[in-house]
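Mods, move this if it's the wrong board.
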Amino acid sequence: MRRVSGIVSICFSLASLAGVTTAALTATLDDYLNTPVWYLSYQVTLKASYETTNDVPVGTSVTTINLERVMSDQKEFNLRSAGMGPLSMRALTDPDKASAADAGQTSMKVLNSMDTCANWLAAGAGANPNATDADIAKDTEPSSPSRIDYTRVDSNRDFVDETGTVFDVTTTTTIKGTGNVLVMGMGTVILEMNKASKTYMLTLPFGSSPTGPEIKREIVTVARPKGKAPDEQRESGALETDFPARLELNPPQPDGIDGGVLIRGTLDPAAGKIAGQQTFNVNFNDGPYALPGTLTFTYALTTMPPAK
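Not the wrong board. Structure tokens:
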């Protein structure tokens, strides 16, 4: 089918407002379904704010934690297949309930979906027959900007040491900086569309924190004995491992993917693109604390490459 240009798409939208039949809408949905490459731009924002009073035998202990991590990325869904994709297929095939009859029905549904469904994978340069070795090697280089801003304050008052000295101790831990991370696409970032139900499914990864010398981790401990001068100690260095290392959705997403989320939406060809925002509750560990937070995904899918 002939691709619809940007100008013709606008004409279709205006025509539908004037009461034209759904034939134009169907044609535009077909155009979505037959698009060879979709271009994805998205941003993942992790936020957490937490305060707790710790149980200590003497004195008082309060911990406050604030975290914001923002990662952005762009992908090309450049490997298209007609019919149901891995997400839809997983929903059809339950290994605990499979039978010969079920297998036959599944095969029929898959065949019937060839004209109404399509799926795309972000296969990188490997899907381009004209890609050079340099293009393929570039896919394995960190190129997605990620920023982290983390502050944790452990405030302990009226502690008593073995000599009976009463003192306060405040420990401030910060992790700050911006760097690039590697986000793999194949199997992690998936797009599926269903023309019959006018819906789409999109999977996106949780994202990760940058590491290396540009990400500074600093711990400042200030002890204030009663009646004495304060004593300050500093420890600083680069962040060498991803932080936080493990995020978990709360509640879990049964049909999601490991290390990511499944987003569902409605196709609206009149909009000219697929875009949305969705927030999920998450938990992660910070030392002895199991912290609540939110992950917000903002995304846009277009048929033309976005600005770099």
